[in-house]
# Entry
Amino acid sequence: MSIPRPKVDKGITLLEARIGVRKGFIRRLLKEDDWSFVIKLHAVFEAVCTHLLLFHFKEPELSEVFSRLELSNKATGKVAFLSKLELLDNENRRFISVLSELRNSLVHDVRNAEFSLTSLATTKEPEQIKQLAISFSPYDTLIRKFPYDPKMKLGFGPVEQKHASIAQVVERFKTNPKVHIWAGGYNVLISLVDMYGYSEYRQWAKSNPSTFHDAL
# Structure
C-alpha cells in the first residue's frame, strides 16, 4: 500500500521545532512499522503536552516535574492538567487516552514489534472497532455534533456530515487504520497549536482583569 504524502500545516512545522524534532518528523511517522508508529506518535503527544504546560505556566523549573507526569492519568496526568486549563477538549483528550492505552499494551514487550494495526481494526468485536474508530477521529465527532444551521449560517454541511458519519469513519479505520489514527492525531495537534494562542489570551485576561471585563 502506498504511503500518502499529506500537506502539513505550518503550525505543525512550528510544533516540531518547539519539541525539538526534525522538520517532517510527524509526516514521516506514516512510514514507520505499526509498533514504532504507535510508540512514536505517543511520544510526540508526551512532548507537546509537556511543552504546552510549560508555556502556559512560564516556569522552567517545572520542566522535570511535568516531564515525569503520566500523559493520560485521569487525575494527575498531563491531559488532566490541560483539560482543567481548558486547553484540551473532551474529544481530543479521548484520542490521547485511547492512544496511551494502546501504547501501554505494546511498549513493555519487544515481541509486540510484530503488532499489526490492520489486525486491531478488523479482528475485534464490531462494537470495539466502532469505538476505536470514533475515538481516533475526534474532528469527525465535532462535525457530527454541529450540522449546518441555515438560520445561523453555522455548522457543517451535508458533504462534511456524510464524510464524518460513523459508518464512513468505521470503514476508513478498517481500510487503513494507520492513516486514520495519524489523521486524527494531526487534528489534535493542530488544536494544541491553537491552544498556545488561547493560553496567551488567558494569561493576558488574568493580568488585565479590568480591561477584560470592559471588553465584555
